[in-house]
Amino acid sequence: MELQIKDITLEIMELTNGNICKRCLGRNFSKTIAGPGNLIRGEYLRKTLEDTDENIPKSSGCYICNDLFDDLDNMIKKVIEVIKTEDIHFSNFLIGCRVDPDIIEREEYIHNKFDLDVENIKKELNREIGKELSVRLSKEVEFDNPNLVIMVDFKKGTIETQINPIFIESRYRKLIRGIPQTKWPCSKCKGRGCERCNYTGKMYPETVEELISEDAIKAANGTGAKFHGAGREDIDVRMLGTGRTFVLEIKEPKIRDIDLKDLEESVNKHADGKVEISEMKFVAKNRRAEIKESSRDTYKVYKATVEVESEVDPSLLDSLKSMKIINQRTPIRVSHRRADKIRTREVKKLEYKKLDSKMLELLIECEGGLYIKELISGDENRSKPSVSEILGTSARCVQLDVMHVNI
Questions:
Q1: Mean per-residue pLDDT, 56-78
Q2: Cβ contacts of residue 384 below 8 Å, gap of 6+?
Q3: In this structure, which topology does domain 68-162 adopt according to CATH?
Q4: Topology classification of domain 298-406
């Protein structure tokens, strides 16, 4: 044993009157003594001192941890029991722990006194519990994105579990009008429930989110879900074509290995004729943010039925194809919830079909974020140019469908 290590060991022994367990002793030298663990380091240090005839008293209880490591196996058994009782399905996990602050304080005192830059007791506890659980449960430890986080509280003797969400990406088609994408709290009671909303707390009885998430929550045995869409369409607008991308976040899922083909069939049966989903797949958490950030960069195709106030000179219709760069001030209808600013968007392609003397059908391919209803009406000159401006007569969108969302 090097002289410096021996001197520090003797001083620690004197400071603790020999009352220090092998793990807490070995941890002080985790960076200076090679070995498979702090227990082996501590055994080596004690044996070396005893072999050199140093008067080393036997430990009668650890000054630092109060023999916390003696309770390790019991706490591991508690963790396994909690997992079985709560019937949690997972493939990887992460361990955290809480200990009496006095333990941390006593350990830090020794580390500071001898200027020791080593791991603390919580890190060792986490590692040892994790290693043992990995063997007993045949599960992997995962530091970055664990399915399950287990908190072992040595002070209270309790086990807490945090089941991290799963994320499922899919596409939805909204086949009927009158359904919002996500829940709208009742404007009168703010979601508490009142006579106006029939005590549901909602402005509308059904949403795309609810029609999809109900079966998903049940399949995962989760506690709830959150819907993340790549943009949204108005309540009175259908979402057709291949649909709109979304990510469904299922909270606290006790079952993670869901059969997505069965789930897709279940949702489509439940929402028959209203909403239809496809292409379900598991994704990472960051996909949730990706689809929201990409909404501005997508292009979309709309089909709009337009009514004009006066019969249009046919020679003006071709002028609609020249619409390219559109400057839109925040529409009046959403100004109460959106920042008042001017947005610039591009119309990539516009085709028209005359239905009768005062009705047109427009097929508009445009940059994401363009307000189509306002592009048509002009929104009191807040959208320029507009269909109304170019045709020289008031125009309004009487029916709108999203035909394609490219993402």
A1: 90
A2: 326, 327, 328, 378
A3: THUMP fold (3.30.2300)
A4: Alpha-Beta Plaits (3.30.70)
- pLDDT, tens digit, for every residue of 303-312? 999 999 999 9
What contacts 181, CB < 8 A, 6 or more positions away?
174, 207, 208, 209, 227, 229, 232, 233
Q: Where are the domains of the chain?
A: 3-51, 68-162, 166-295, 298-406
Same fold, 68-162 and 166-295: no
Q: How confident is the model at residue 295 (pLDDT cuts 50, 70, 90)?
A: low
Measured torsion, CA atoms of residues 118, 124, 127, 130, in degrees rounded to the nearest 10:
-170
Write down the catalytic residue from 71, 153, 234, 401.
234
The dihedral built from the CA positions of residue 226, 185, 204 and 295, taken in this order, carries a sign that is negative
- Answer yes or no: 234 catalytic: yes
Secondary structure in 3-state letters for 137-155:
HCCEECCCCCCEEEEEECC
Judged on CB neighbours under 10 Å (0-12, 13-18, 19+), 14 is exposed
Tokens of 274: 């209203």
Which tens digits make up the pLDDT trace of 6-18? 889 999 998 999 8
